[in-house]
Every structure is written in structure tokens, then in C-alpha cells.
Design a protein that fits this description.
The complex is a heterodimer of chains A (about 300) and B (about 350). Chain A contains 14 helices and 2 strands, in the order αββααααααααααααα. Chain A is mostly helical. Chain A has 2 domains: about 35 residues, no CATH class; about 230 residues, MetI-like fold. With about 350 residues, chain B is α+β, with helices and mostly antiparallel strands. Chain B has 2 domains: about 200 residues, P-loop containing nucleotide triphosphate hydrolases (Rossmann fold); about 120 residues, RNA polymerase II/Efflux pump adaptor protein, barrel-sandwich hybrid domain (OB fold (Dihydrolipoamide Acetyltransferase, E2P), Beta Barrel), CATH 2.40.50.100. In chain B, the strands form 4 sheets. Chain B has a 6-stranded mixed beta sheet with strand order 4-5-6-1-7-8, sandwiched between helices. A 5-stranded antiparallel beta sheet of chain B has the order 11-10-9-12-18. In chain B, helix 2 runs parallel beside helix 4 and helix 3 crosses helix 4. The longest helix of chain B has 18 residues. The two termini of chain B are about 25 Å apart. Classes of the chains: A mainly alpha (about 300), B alpha+beta (about 350).
């Protein structure tokens, strides 16, 4: 009897385990394979705007024509045109610096929240996620208003005599950084808060007891013990920022686009679906490495528990 | 007020236990010595120097935490070395002292392990080593054995005593476990509601408690309330009648006093005891609890008053000598009773 029950349990367990895999299959792997296929196709003035099309009705012969029609030409195009390389570099650069700013700004915020009395913590966390209650688009439009040449930011800077001439913010990298750091701050603060809040107070006391002054306790105990939260926050910000489209498109200039803008232009401006797909596939490849690092770290953290 | 009007001297090289129920302020007192809490009034002197303005990291005392508070990201050796590194000692000196300490707490071969890879007993020893390696003037131990299972706790108590004798530092241990305090400590301070009730060696605490509270908190006790007789050596009107005691208490005749009699000092017999035995009273057996090494008897005497008696099971069937509802005689010598005035 217990044998049987165990087997039933394991069947049920497997079924439950299947759900996330099925989800990934339907909503990630299948779309990705479609994009991969398009990236190997050629543009055509047709509907859909690429060849070859997959035609099951033509049987074996159709399958052969289909596969012979695929090529890596689009990937060659990406390698030959510096526009694509430059937008990859630009995206990684913006993502890297924004993530650094986010860490530097987010850590003190998370630390302060984790150190306030428990009842106030809930309120502060609600305040951190409060911006999510408004659409990102509306908030970015608000920033466009703030960053205008005669907008509130320049008014304040002029009033405080920090600048003599009102500088142009919009269509600059500064505007992109402001928009990104503002939008992603909760994604940095929340995982950091989650680890800092769990930090055992007695460890800090033990370090003090063993002769460690306060600032050193931070370096030797608090910081290393919040490394998992820092890693989570960094990846949670870095990965989506690389592919960010709305913020650079609305706040940044068009001279050196980020990769999201390049994909958009290829898709909708040039109607070149295959080239756009190739750029997108390479972007996924670019982001797989940090995702794998994160997965490894998370798995190790679970093991330690 | 967690700790109130408390004055206490602890001697160099002493193993001192602060004993009391949870919430009595003993941990707060320990944390004051460590520097994590500040007294609103009063002073803490160490070798004549006031510690009030010395921050925790400069105090020559170390604490072993109840949760052990081992650094999870450091291995055993790095945990033990942590305090020495703060002193800026040479690496060679640190390595030597850490190795000595690892050997002292018998953790050879575990130096490279992280705390989560150790058993509870091993973690406890790492915590002990980490606080000892700095050679503190005073080592503070906050419920150091509470997280261990009962058997391991018993063994570790003796190891702790041995260790203290070996290193010769002053140890102050906080515990709510009276047998632990009795086992390890040279002197015990019994605390209740932030005040020290009695400070004495273990045997004195048990044999001469200074109040009903201490007598009741340390071990079991039967308390007979009555008025002190004119000769000062008898108590009138208790549930067991007139009781004779051996020592004159510091109280006026006629005042309310209590005779405290430990359960293991009472004898039970079927026949009335020989005349001349100091105190005896008739009763019937209500309950018997067989614990293996001893049996606990609950007996009812006059007016429904219950008396607890503990008898060692020295014979094979000692429990059968007296059964439920048997009519028996209880007796104890005058010296067995302690007279308490509060």
C-alpha cells in the first residue's frame, strides 16, 4: 500500500512539475523558435513579409525547399554593419552604468528600510512600489515634461543658480539614465530589502563584540551577507535594461539607438522582419550568460537553506 | 525596568551563573556588561575601570550568543580568527592561536567547514572557541547550551567546567536551567523581576534558600506556613501541626514563617515512627510517579494539604513498598526543615 501511494504521489508531483515547463514551452520556446526561423529567412514583399513559408501541404518536397531556403545571411549582415554592433555596445553600456547607479542609490534605501521599526517597514515598501500603480508610459511622459528645456528641473536649477543657461536634457544619455534609474529602482530595492531584512541582528552584535568598529562590520558582515540580494537586484535590472525600448525611445536621442530601438526600426520602419529577428536572437544569446549565473547562484542559495 | 537596584561583585577566575525564569532580566544584565545595552543609572566596573563609555568593540569582554551568531559566510577557522584579525595581530600568531583553539574544543579537521555544514554541538563549540580565542577578561555566555539536546547538554556542561578551569578566565553564564547552573557554577545569582534575590554557592542556594521564591524556584519544596513559637525552635499551627526546627530564625515569636522541606528529606513508613523523631504526620497516598531512578509520591495529610516526597528506587521493587490509598506516616528530622521569613 505505501508503495502504491508513493507512486501516485510521484505521478502527481511530475504533473505539477510539468506546468511551468509547459508554460515555458508554449510562451517562450515556441515563440523563440518562430523568431529563430524568421531570422534565417529572407525578406519578401508578401504576407508574411519573408520567405520561405512553411507549407505542410507540399509534403516532403515542400520540406526540402523550405530548408534549402534558410540561410545565415542576416547574421552576416549584423556582423558587417557597425550600426548593430554599436547598438549592442550602447545597450550594454547603458545597462551596466544604470545598474551601478541603481545599486549605489538602492542599497542605502533598502538598508534604511530594513533598519526601521517593523510597522513602518510595510508603509515604506508600499511607497517604493507605489509608482507601479501608474502606467510606465505616463510616468515617462511626465519625465519628458520635467526634463524639457523650460521644464521644472531647469527652473529649479536656474533658481538655485546651479546653471546659467538651461541645458537640454531630452534626447541625451542623461535623460535615458534618469528615466531608467527612476523606473527600475523598485527592482533593485526589493531584493536588497528582502536579504537585508533577514540579516540576523546578533551577527552584527557578535562582530562588534569581537572588536569590529561599525563601518568595518558593514564591510565584513553586512555587505558579504547581502551579496545574494545584490546579485538578484543587479540581474533583475541589468537584463531588462539591455532590451529596454520605451525609455530610450521617448527620452533619448536617435543618433545612437539602444538595441530595442534598432529592432523596432527593422521591424516597423524597414519592414525587415528577418534582420530584426536575427538581432533579437543575438540579444537573447547575449543575455543567457547572466541568467545562467543567476540561476546557479539561486540554486546554491536554496541548497544552503 | 528590566534590571533594577542590582549590586553584585564577581571575582576573577570565577564561574558565575545568573539564574532566573525567562524575562527576569538576566540576559539584559549580560548585555549591559557586553555593552549592547546602557544602564540608565549605576556603573559597571571591570578591574576598577568604569565601562560606561567604552563601546562594545573596545571592551575586554567577549560574549557567546544564545543563537551562536556564527558568520554564515565564513568557515570555522575564519570565524574563530575574526576577533584576532580585528586586533591586527600577525598572521602567524593568528594561525597559531586559532589552531590551539580548534584543538581545545576538539574540532580538528573541521576548520574548512561552513557553519551550515556542522552539527548543533559542533556549532556550539565554534561559538565558544570564537569568544575564547581573544582571551577576554570576562567571558559572557548567554544560554550557551539551550539549543543542544538533553544528553549532549549534560556532557557539555562538564566540558565547559573543565575548559574554564583550563583557561582560568572569569565566566558569567546566563541560564534558566537550574541544574545547569548548579553543575557548572562556583556561585549562583538567582534573579527575579530584575532584582538579585540570592547570591550563594549552589549547595547553599539549595540547602539554605533565603526566601520561599528561591526555595520554590530551585528544585521542589514543601512549604508549611505557621507562626513562630515562643522558643524560636517550633512553628505552630501548620498543616502538619506543630513542627520543630533546628535553627532559630531571625524573627520575633508569633510572626508568620514557613518551614521548607525538600521532598527527598521526607521518609515514608507504614508503621508509626519511633517516638522522639522530630516531626511526623499521618497521610494517605494520592499519586505515585515512577521516574526510574526515583519515584515521586503525592500524599494528602490533614485538611487536604498535599506533600510531595521523593524516594530513590534503590531496591528492585521499591515502588511497591507503598501503594495507592495506603495509610502511611511521614517524618523528617528538625534539621531537614529550613525556616523562611519571607
Amino acid at each position: 500500500m505505501p508503495m502504491k501511494r508513493q507512486q501516485q504521489g510521484s505521478v502527481l508531483q511530475r504533473l505539477v512539475l510539468c506546468i511551468p515547463y509547459a508554460w515555458l514551452l508554449v510562451f517562450f520556446l515556441v515563440p523563440f523558435l518562430i523568431v529563430l526561423k524568421i531570422s534565417l529567412s529572407q525578406t519578401a514583399i508578401a504576407q508574411p513579409p519573408y520567405t520561405p513559408a512553411f507549407d505542410l501541404a507540399a509534403g516532403w518536397h515542400g520540406l526540402v525547399t523550405f530548408f534549402s531556403g534558410l540561410s545565415l545571411d542576416n547574421y552576416g549582415l549584423i556582423g558587417s554593419d557597425p550600426l548593430y554592433i554599436l547598438s549592442y555596445v550602447k545597450s550594454v553600456e547603458i545597462a551596466a552604468f544604470s545598474t551601478l547607479f541603481l545599486l549605489v542609490i538602492g542599497y542605502p534605501i533598502a538598508y534604511a528600510i530594513a533598519r526601521t521599526p517593523r510597522r513602518a517597514q510595510a508603509v515604506l515598501i508600499v511607497l517604493v512600489v507605489l509608482p507601479f500603480w501608474t502606467s510606465l508610459l505616463i510616468r515617462i511622459y511626465a519625465w519628458m515634461n520635467i526634463l524639457q528645456r523650460d521644464g521644472p528641473l531647469n527652473d529649479v536649477l536656474m533658481a538655485l543658480s546651479i546653471v546659467k543657461e538651461p541645458p537640454a536634457w531630452l534626447s541625451t544619455d542623461s535623460a535615458i539614465y534618469i528615466g531608467i534609474v527612476y523606473s527600475y529602482l523598485p527592482f533593485m530595492v526589493l531584493p536588497l530589502y528582502a536579504t537585508l531584512e533577514k540579516l540576523d541582528e546578533s551577527l552584527l552584535e557578535a562582530a562588534a563584540d569581537l572588536g569590529c568598529p561599525r563601518w568595518k562590520i558593514f564591510w565584513l558582515v553586512t555587505l558579504p551577507l547581502s551579496s545574494s540580494g545584490m546579485l538578484a537586484g543587479v540581474l533583475l535590472c541589468f537584463i531588462p535594461i539591455v532590451g529596454e525600448f520605451v525609455i530610450p525611445d521617448l527620452l533619448g536621442g536617435s543618433r545612437s539607438p539602444m538595441i530595442g530601438q534598432t529592432i523596432w526600426t527593422e521591424f516597423f520602419g524597414n519592414k525587415d522582419w528577418p534582420a530584426a529577428s536575427a538581432v533579437a536572437v543575438l540579444l537573447v544569446g547575449l543575455l543567457v550568460t547572466p541568467i545562467v549565473i543567476y540561476q546557479n547562484q539561486a540554486a546554491r542559495a536554496v541548497e544552503r537553506e | 525596568m528590566v534590571v533594577d537596584h542590582l549590586s553584585l561583585d564577581i571575582y576573577e577566575g570565577e564561574f558565575f551563573a545568573l539564574l532566573g525564569p525567562s524575562g527576569c532580566g538576566k540576559t539584559t544584565l549580560l548585555r549591559m556588561i557586553a555593552g549592547f545595552e546602557r544602564p540608565h543609572a549605576g556603573r559597571i566596573l571591570l578591574e576598577g575601570i568604569d565601562l560606561a563609555d567604552v563601546p562594545p568593540h573596545r571592551r575586554p569582554v567577549n560574549m557567546m550568543f544564545q543563537s551562536y551568531a556564527l558568520f554564515p559566510h565564513l568557515n570555522v577557522e575564519a570565524n574563530i580568527a575574526f576577533g584576532l584579525k580585528q586586533e591586527g595581530l600577525a598572521k602567524r600568531e593568528i594561525d597559531r592561536r586559532v589552531a590551539d583553539m580548534v584543538a581545545l574544543v576538539k574540532l580538528e579537521g573541521f576548520g574548512g567547514r561552513k557553519p551550515h555544514e556542522l552539527s548543533g554541538g559542533q556549532r556550539q563549540r565554534v561559538a565558544l572557541a570564537r569568544s575564547l580565542v581573544k582571551r577576554p577578561r570576562v567571558l559572557l555566555l548567554d544560554e550557551p547550551l539551550a539549543a543542544l539536546d538533553k544528553k549532549l547538554r549534560g556532557e557539555t556542561q562538564f566540558e565547559l567546567m573543565e575548559l574554564q578551569r583550563k583557561v582560568g578566565f572569569t565566566f558569567i553564564i546566563v541560564t534558566h536551567d537550574q541544574s545547569e547552573a548548579m553543575t557548572v557554577a562556583d556561585r549562583i545569582g538567582v534573579m527575579d523581576s530584575g532584582r538579585l534575590i540570592q547570591v550563594a554557592p549552589p549547595a547553599a542556594i539549595y540547602e539554605q534558600p533565603n526566601s520561599r521564591w528561591v526555595a520554590d524556584f530551585i528544585g521542589d519544596v514543601n512549604l508549611f506556613a505557621g507562626r513562630l513559637g515562643d522558643d524560636g525552635l517550633s512553628i505552630e499551627g501548620t498543616a502538619a501541626g506543630r513542627l520543630r526546627v533546628a535553627v532559630k530564625p531571625d524573627a520575633e515569636p508569633g510572626t508568620m514563617v514557613w518551614a521548607a522541606v525538600r521532598p527527598e528529606k521526607v521518609r515514608i513508613s507504614r508503621e508509626p515512627p519511633r517516638p522522639g523523631l522530630d516531626n511526623c504526620v499521618a497521610g494517605s497516598v494520592v499519586d505515585i510517579g515512577y521516574l526510574g531512578d526515583v519515584s515521586i509520591y503525592k500524599l494528602r495529610i490533614r485538611d487536604g494539604f498535599q506533600v510531595k516526597v521523593v524516594i530513590a528506587n534503590v531496591g528492585g521493587h521499591a515502588g511497591r513498598a507503598v501503594g495507592f490509598d495506603d495509610q502511611v506516616w511521614l517524618s523528617w528530622p528538625a534539621e531537614a526543615a529550613i525556616v523562611l521569613t519571607r
